[in-house]
Amino acid sequence: MRILLVSTTFYESPPKMYAGTEYQVWVLAEELNKLGHKVSVVAPVGSRFSKGIEHIPTVVPQLGNMQEDAVWPNILLPRLVDLKTGEAKGEFDVVHERSFTMWSYMAAKDHPDVKVCATVDWQMHWHLLPQVQSGEVSALPPVPHANLIGISNAHSLAVSAALGVPVEYVYNGLPVETFPFQKEKGDRFLYLGRIARFKGPHLAIHLADKLGVPLDVCGEDRFVGDPSYVHQVMNACRRMAVYRGEVRLERKLELLKNAKAVLFPAIWPEPFGLVPIEANACGTPVVALDYPGSAISEIIEDGVNGFLCKTLDEMAAAMKNVGDIKPEECRRVVEEKFTARLMAERYVKLYGRVAAGDGW
Description:
The chain is of the alpha/beta class. Helix content is 34%, strand content 15%. It has a seven-stranded parallel β-sheet, sandwiched between helices. A three-stranded parallel β-sheet has the order 8-9-10, sandwiched between helices. The two termini are 20 Å apart.
């Protein structure tokens, strides 16, 4: 199958630092290539892919600077449509969008031969479907099939309810072999994730201070919406917590494999939760807040690869019992449910439906 993946303009793929969507684009491209598919990826300058994967460079990535409007007319549209004749080129069997503006739907609207699907990596905030919101264009007419894909069952149900269209889902996946499994753990807990209020790093710090246990606080602290909150978190790291900020991959893996447990106190309906499966891949349990509408209960099996908690008090109690969780069970859950191969195979099945015109 000939597949075109479209990434964002915020980070290269794979990202040098922590960025979930752009990392998943890279993982998927690599795995589809291993499965024998012809893969092209629209991604920023500096992206790196294995031999056999075509990289279509877009722009120099700029965090927080939406440059996708320039990518559409100058790079993406000419690959989909012959600008002289106005006809679809038919170069790809399916276009898989993971950008924010999803301009490919413009081509699909005007050219039924352009088959498009899109993974929604965030909580839905569109008003119509599919909407390409850019400049003065606030809403575009829908294509026959939206072909939207969530990243968990809970997420797909939320998107479907918001838009009134059916939504499939595919779990994110990891190249598990690149995550070092370690049975022996240290004595430090770990918070890893964006330093944003809805992710709950302040709650992790509160729990560490309450129990008197050491905590490392790591995460992306530039693309956060509220810089003042980052300073609040940094200032709160005075007793048991140490603020380490954004860390590179090698350091992240070191922290994950040595952590006594990863704290995941997200206070929003998390669409998936990449950090928990990364922790589990290293054999590290996760103590998570089971926020209403979150997908975390699809990842964590209570008492098996971590603990699901309804309150902070329950999280505190669970932190005392993380030694009961077997590292081998953590790894097993990822190997059975969240591998890159499983993700790619599920996407290929959906691609087949889209390419055949039998979308959803």
